[in-house]
Amino acid sequence: MEKSHGLLIVLSGPSGAGKGTLCKELLRQMPNLSYSVSLTTRSPRPGEVDGVHYFFRSREDVEAMIARDELLEWAQFCENYYGTPRFAVEQAILDGQDVILEIEIQGALQIKKRFPQGVFTFIVPPSLDVLSERIHKRGTETEEVIQKRLATAIQELEYVSEYDYVVVNDEVPVAVDKLKSIIIAEKCRVKRKPFVFKGES
Amino acid sequence: MEKSHGLLIVLSGPSGAGKGTLCKELLRQMPNLSYSVSLTTRSPRPGEVDGVHYFFRSREDVEAMIARDELLEWAQFCENYYGTPRFAVEQAILDGQDVILEIEIQGALQIKKRFPQGVFTFIVPPSLDVLSERIHKRGTETEEVIQKRLATAIQELEYVSEYDYVVVNDEVPVAVDKLKSIIIAEKCRVKRKPFVFKGES
């Protein structure tokens, strides 16, 4: 069987859906999955490490990379840039490595245009109450910013129709199992396989 | 969230791929899955029970059912009819019940035309040597019938392109895990969900 390309798994969804938690747990359980670190111009939150959680870059740096088409996608969200460095992702996939991206919805939709063979998965909270609670708990923004995020999150739920899969993040272990199943199943899809049945044993 | 219809999971593939073993193990591990018992005009093999493994029926009975359009699919294979009673499958799916069918390729392709939203999974043996060995081991047919089955099986491998998924049946537990993942993933597909996000908690 010819070597298959890696999968690009895009985890997306509104702020507060818990996609970060799911992504982290998925990476822990699937060590062959590689995480694509995003760029951002926002300030690090307590505990966030440059090059691990994000590449924290200046507006000038990011705008220069956009001009040189070095980002696979980029978006502005709450007045900050977020983006995905292009080269590392493309190279990994060609090498047969599965890559996971955890990104905002605007970015995911850009990637879908450029790379429709990605696995686009939308993470949703179990209810609006839970969503509101999670955004409040983060506790790093002012109430005004929180309300803005919540309103955006509610609007963003409409984008589910653009995705291949939807996973309700009610209980983390259940949601992670679903994500693992999605990855395993996608690897069995006929359209992804240059399937050649070998006569030789 | 509105109630979803059940899935119709079609396990198919050439004779000797081991789809029967996989189907049996899958049903054991997923008790909510319901098995659609096929009809056949062939004689029962030792240990096969009418209404459990197959409904064993006369040619006259099956031809009458075909005339009344009571079969979801039917095919002739090695001079016998095989078919799937329509009503039970359709009713179960409307009730939200997942149904699994284990059928020959001709039958699977008929179902695909009538019911393209089914989950069409092709089971293949890991090599032609293993295929030959498995067909021989069954030991219920003459060498001429075996050779005919083997030649048909090799031709039938071409049909993989008509399917959604392909699972290589090398080790049964690994193949069963893949089938379980396919079912779980398909239940997360956006196109299968009349997704309504409820504001109420």
TrEMBL record, chains A, B:
GO terms for molecular function: ATP binding; GMP kinase activity. GO terms for cellular component: cytosol. Pfam families: Guanylate_kin. Belongs to the guanylate kinase family. SMART domains: GuKc. InterPro entries: GK/Ca_channel_bsu, Guanylate_kin-like_dom, Guanylate_kinase, Guanylate_kinase_CS, P-loop_NTPase. Its EC number is 2.7.4.8. Essential for recycling GMP and indirectly, cGMP. Coiled coil: none annotated. It comes from the Bacteria. Gene3D superfamilies: Guanylate Kinase phosphate binding domain, P-loop containing nucleotide triphosphate hydrolases. Keywords: ATP-binding, Cytoplasm, Kinase, Nucleotide-binding, Transferase. HAMAP family: Guanylate_kinase (MF_00328). It catalyses: GMP + ATP = GDP + ADP. This is Guanylate kinase. Residues 6-184 form the Guanylate kinase-like domain. It is found in: Cytoplasm. ATP binds at residues 13-20.
